[in-house]
Amino acid sequence: MASVTSKTPMLRAAAARGYAAHAQAAAASRGSGEVQTTTLPNKLVVASAEPNAAVSRISIIFRAGSRNETGDSLGAAHVLRAAGGLSTKTATAFGITRNIQQAGGSLTTSADREVVTYSVAVTKDHLETGLKYLEATATGQVFKPWELAELTPVIRNELARLPSEVQAVDLLHKAAFRGGLGNSVFCPDYLVGKHSSETMQHYFAANCTTNRAAVAGVGVDHQLLVGFAQSLALESGAGSANKSTFNTGEVRRDGAGSRAAVAVAAQAVGWDSLKEATAFWVLHHAAGLGPVTKRGANNGVLTKALGDVNCSSLFNGYSDNGLFGFIVSGDAKNAGKAVEAGAKALKSLSVSDADVARGKALTLLNLAEATENHSSLLTQLGDEAALLGQVYKQSDLIAAVNSVSTSDVQAAARKVASSKLAIGAVGNLAHVPHLCELH
């Protein structure tokens, strides 16, 4: 394939659309690596960092995750993810696969409760090819009925392989939020294979608009990325906000065997409140994410109360709401005891100066690792741009963590202690207490 700096007819056509004119300058640039953001007149947000990275990684992100599903479209976000790379208006599935492979790149689709993300990774000399098929995949899907039918065994295989811990957290969200954030990130079993072409086209049209989108890049010139974003053929429209409120409740799914996985959580906050969310982030690390050394003990302020089970604290922060608690898995009897102990620990959760210092150190390590890894950096840029309409620089996040005081984290702990609980549980639940037994 032609390199991004060659003067081919394809590149001239791309240049006319506005995103390839800066390609040669990008190859020679020596940027600072700072985050750059631009909001286009159509409300689409563009964010980039590390322009000199060896590999160019670009994502198109839509606020089209499962929280946006309705009763008529449950599972659509999962199908949208599985359909990434299928035939589009300008390319066949075979053509997309062959050309991306010939360029030595990768094209992936991911989805969670809030966003659906289309990403490409290519070397700079194949950036033109990468952008071409990323655009086709993210904006031109046609959802041919026979291709959707071929996804049925793929989705069923994914559902059959879900770890019990993942299922427990999924059920926890259903218990805590019911609809919206409570919608499963996985297609309900009874709806697998039931999504028509019309259903998927309607879901895409309603949620994949410029007002609900962002373009993020790592290892690509910012102005080139802005030009690419301007060229995307997307409709405008704000769509529904799909607010979710926290509710107490439990969802249990009994299963065979001798093991159980249980997730318990109280209400936290969303990332639209950076100061409070950062305090919960620090509390999450102080509470414990499991042993930090081989054959080590759980020494977090929460996990040490859970006993000798596989466990971790849990903090799921979304754009406007969140959950904080713990997840345990293991022998059913031990898991049941751990749930009782963990619920009591949540109701009396407290932290010391030493706990907060440890939590801040671990949070800063987590942040540094995330930003040094270009794949996770791209995810961070895309999620913040799409969900918050702005992107935090690494220095901003470091400052936010460093500014967290013991009193801030104690306030987060008090919020958890005073909140009602929600539970999601799967497996042998004979020894797992019901929610009403934990109050």
Q: Helix segment count?
A: 16
Largest sheet: 6 strands, mixed
* SS-derived structural category: alpha+beta
Which outline best applies? globular
Distance, first to last CA: 64 Å
Q: Regarding quaternary structure, how should these chains be classified?
A: single chain
C-alpha-based Rg, rounded:
23 Å
The SSE string, one letter per element, is HHEEEHHEEHHHHHEHEEHEEHHHHHE
Strand proportion: 15-25%
Q: Helical content, roughly?
A: 40-55%
Q: Unreliable runs, pLDDT <50, ≥5 residues?
A: 1-32
Total beta strands: 11
Task: Going across the biggest sheet, name each strand in turn.
Answer: 1-2-6-3-5-4
Mean pLDDT: 89
Word description of this protein:
With 439 residues, this protein is an alpha+beta fold. Helix content is 41%, strand content 17%. The chain has helices at 9-17, 23-28, 76-82, 93-102, 127-139, 145-150, 152-160, 164-177, 197-207, 222-231, 274-287, 332-347, 353-372, 374-388, 394-402, 406-418, and strands at 36-39, 45-49, 55-62, 106-111, 116-123, 213-218, 249-254, 259-267, 310-317, 322-331, 422-427. A 6-stranded mixed β-sheet has the order 1-2-6-3-5-4, with helices on both faces. Strands 7-11-8-10-9 form a 5-stranded mixed β-sheet. β9 and β10 form a beta hairpin. α11 (274-287) crosses α13 (353-372) and α13 (353-372) runs antiparallel to α15. The protein is globular and about 55 Å long. The protein starts with 8 loop residues before the first helix and ends in a 12-residue tail after the last strand. The relative contact order is 0.16.
